[in-house]
Design goal:
The protein has 755 residues and is mainly β. The protein is built from 8 helices and 51 strands. The protein folds into 3 domains: 2-252, Sandwich (Jelly Rolls), CATH 2.60.120.200; 285-592, Glycosyl hydrolase domain, family 43 (Tachylectin-2, Chain A, 5 Propeller), CATH 2.115.10; 600-751, Sandwich (Jelly Rolls). Strands 1, 3, 4, 6, 11, 12, 13 and 15 form an 8-stranded antiparallel beta sheet that branches. The radius of gyration is 31 Å and the shape is elongated. 46% of the residues are buried. Mean pLDDT is 93; it is low at 1-17.
Length: 755
């Protein structure tokens, strides 16, 4: 890597030594030297607010200004702005297929405000360029004639130009790519094509958001060469020195490119040992083998194997970032695991990876497997582009390891979408010879406020037709702020369909509708509504598949409730596979997959135990952080009753699971569940659980270290993260808060680890 840096330095020095900064400025469309209010080419500026021009620099600062083509005089901004004066001839025309923007700036001590620093703006529809501040970022936005809105955007931390003296910021567009340089070092690039917006008649503005000084600024209607960028930024040698230090910062995000095999083996072994030694890492729930999980994105049963795709994080290599090909940020990719039995999983690594050319700076967002497609087909969202499709390289292989995005992507582009449609995380299914897709988490048509997605239709997966809002949500079930992200739609029996969704606000959650799908009208009509987690829970991004037995199998993404999960080497887990069907009354039936029974060992039984408020019962012989419990309870006179898991002998740590007949609820109490969880503000998770007086209660509990799943009467399932710190928090006890209950039977098994 360092050899490449010094080679780059030599290449610059061979071409840059004959270039003088004053020569580079000669063909600029406009240059502001800021010795006064007049710029080159007759452009006049007016000053508003606290801004002074013509302030003399002295000593070394003056010498550096002159060396970079300045005149030793600067403008000082303390809340004011310089604005172009539009004369009879109109504003200065900026036209062509290339452009470079330069700003030499020193930040002041006061906080900068969000807004333009150097711009010809006027709104995204007409923006030529906008070098601006947005909170803690310095960003460059850019528009072209051929595209509505912004054509590209790049950003760096604001502290890049507000700390450490003078800084040179250069944005360069060459007709195919937009690049951003800070002090001559490439800070990122993005693919852009099109002509400059010559029709933009907005005035230039300078200094609106900043607090500090500007030495000079300029705009060219050509792309400066690398050598010219280096010259205006202090020279190739200075840039190479900055790159050496910058490489170390980049590697904090991207990792090192130059690790030898022996280093990789040692690091892999140490990470594996770290992860395996974590007493809170689940041992038989599907989870990430390393790193951090995000949404579960696609599931399918194919040629005898169950497949689960999910989001992980990836960054470009350090060399790509250093050479300006992309930015040093983690972004989403799709990884993949499969199983023949729903219990033992094989990890296949990356299925879909973003390209590192600046065009996918956020990576590949969520989506799904197209339900009912002839061969497994992925549909997903690319931020800034739209909806994309990928297919397996070889659909005959059961493991589905290699995937290839189709060349026609994006098949539903952001550009040209109806104004009421939000192009976002999709789901699709095949019905007859038609494909349907649910696109986006909101629909902005009046009357469809809330969690409404949008329906598209296609015959070939390439040409898609918008069909309108998919359904109309009702405020008796959801609030207007809620959305319908990561949808999943399928028949559930009794002539009904089920729509699963992820909701971002007011908190991350999974919820669903059961209703009727009118295929002729192409509209879903919700009739029942339910949730899968409540405040205090962390279940989101739900997914299902249909297997060869006709079973609808569900997984959900269970986020970490503790901070610093990435420092543990792993983060997040999937729920156990659950079976969905309908009860005779049309309510959702939720059951754990029977394949999990293969993990049972060391069975223990209890029967006919009386439990009262005055007499808790600790279950002898049942002490573990890895358990399945099956209970049959007769409530008797008890109104609130249940069991607690992960109990320390003195009760300091425990997680009670409480059923309340008066409140008709199922809840987990989290006050003593562990200090690492974010249980300070929300100390319980409460789910509705209708129970009739005297009705027997069937409870199944699955405890896998830090994840707890509780099934009651096949009608409710509550998912909870807990983080006990004590090694002796292994006990199980029964309790009532009043009255007396009878434990008719209890079966308990320890569970065999699979990871």
């Amino acid at each position: 890597m360092l050899t490449r840096l010094f080679s780059l330095t030599l290449a610059f020095s061979l071409t840059a030594h004959a270039i003088e900064p004053k020569d580079i400025f000669k063909d600029a469309a406009v240059v502001w030297h800021l010795d006064g209010l007049e710029a080159s080419n007759g452009v006049m500026m007016k000053a508003d607010g606290a801004v002074k021009v013509g302030v003399e620099l002295k000593g070394k600062e003056r010498d550096e200004s002159l060396a970079r083509g300045g005149d030793g005089k600067v403008a000082v901004f303390e809340g004011g702005v310089l604005t172009e004066v539009i004369g009879e001839k109109g504003p200065l025309s900026i036209a062509g297929e290339a452009m470079t923007v330069l700003l030499r700036v020193r930040g002041g001590g006061e906080a900068w405000k969000s807004g333009e620093v150097l711009a010809r703006h006027g709104g995204h529809a007409v923006t030529l360029f906008n070098l601006h501040v947005n909170k803690d970022e310095l960003g460059f936005e850019f528009g072209v004639q051929e595209k509505k809105g912004l054509a590209g955007r790049l950003a760096v931390p604001l502290e890049s130009i507000t700390k450490g003296g003078w800084h040179d910021v250069i944005a360069r567009y060459d007709g195919t790519k937009l690049m951003l340089f800070v002090d001559g070092v490439a800070a990122g690039s993005v693919k852009v094509a099109g002509h400059l917006r010559a029709e933009n008649k907005q005035p230039f503005t300078l200094g609106k958001a900043m607090r500090g000084q500007v030495d000079h600024a300029a705009v060219w209607t050509r792309a400066l060469s690398d050598a010219e960028v280096a010259t205006l930024s202090g020279g190739a040698k200075a840039i190479a020195e900055k790159n050496v230090g910058r490489l170390r910062e980049i590697e904090k995000v991207t990792g090192r490119d130059d690790l030898k095999l022996v280093d990789k083996l040692r690091a892999a072994r140490e990470l594996r040992e770290q992860i395996q030694s974590d007493p809170l890492r689940p041992r038989w729930h599907l989870g990430t083998p390393d790193g951090v999980w995000n949404d579960i994105n696609g599931t399918v049963f194919w040629k005898g194997r169950y497949h689960v795709f999910f989001q992980s994080l990836i960054a470009p290599d350090a060399a790509t970032v250093l050479n300006g090909g992309d930015v040093a940020t983690n972004r989403k990719e799709w990884t993949h695991a499969s199983s023949a039995d729903l219990v033992h999983w094989v990890y296949h690594g990356t299925s879909l990876r973003p390209v590192f050319d600046g065009s996918q700076p956020k990576g590949l967002y969520s989506g799904d497997m197209i339900d009912g497609a002839d061969v497994p087909t992925l549909i997903y969202h690319i931020p800034g582009q739209g909806t994309a499709i990928a297919k397996p390289v070889n659909s005959d292989e059961p493991e589905l390891i290699e995937w290839q995005p189709i060349k026609e992507n994006p098949v539903i582009p952001l550009e040209g979408a109806p104004e009421e449609v939000v192009i976002f995380d999709p789901f699709a299914w095949k019905e007859g010879d038609l494909y349907y897709a649910l696109i986006g988490n909101k629909n902005k048509r009046p009357g469809f406020e809330g969690d409404t997605t949008s329906l598209y239709r296609s015959r070939d997966l390439l040409k898609w037709e918008y069909r309108g809002p998919f359904y109309q949500s009702d405020r008796k079930w959801t609030t207007e702020v809620e959305d319908c992200a990561c949808p999943d739609f399928y028949p559930i029996g009794q002539g009904k369909h089920m729509l699963l969704m992820h909701t971002h606000m007011p908190y991350f959650q999974a919820q669903y509708y059961i209703g009727t799908w009118d295929a002729k009208a192409e509209r879903f009509m919700p009739e029942r509504h339910g949730k899968m987690n409540w405040p205090g829970g962390h279940l989101a991004a739900p997914e299902t598949l249909l297997d060869a037995k006709g079973r609808r199998i569900f997984w959900g993404w269970v986020r970490e409730a503790r901070k610093g999960a990435t420092s543990k080497g792993w983060g997040s887990v999937a729920t156990l596979p659950r079976l969905f069907s309908l009860h005779d009354d049309g309510e959702l039936r939720i059951e754990p997959a029977p394949e999990l029974e293969s993990l049972r060992y060391d069975e223990r039984r209890h029967a006919d135990l009386k439990v009262s408020a005055a007499r808790e019962v600790t279950l002898d012989g049942i002490r573990s952080d890895s358990l399945e419990l099956r209970l049959l309870i007769e409530p008797g006179s008890a109104k609130e009753f249940g069991l607690a898991v992960r109990c320390s002998p003195d009760g300091e740590e425990q997680t009670p699971i409480v059923l309340s007949l008066p409140k008709q609820t199922l809840r987990t109490e989290l006050a003593k569940s562990g200090a690492e969880g974010n249980f300070k503000d929300i100390t319980e998770q409460v789910a509705p659980m209708p129970l009739k007086a005297g009705e027997p209660v069937r409870v199944r509990v699955f405890l896998d270290r830090s994840i707890l799943e509780v099934f009651v009467n096949e009608r409710q399932c509550l998912t909870q993260r807990i983080y006990p710190a004590r090694k002796d928090s292994l006990g199980v006890k029964l309790f009532t808060r009043d009255g007396e209950m009878t434990l008719k039977s209890l079966e308990a098994w320890k569970m065999m680890p699979v990871f």
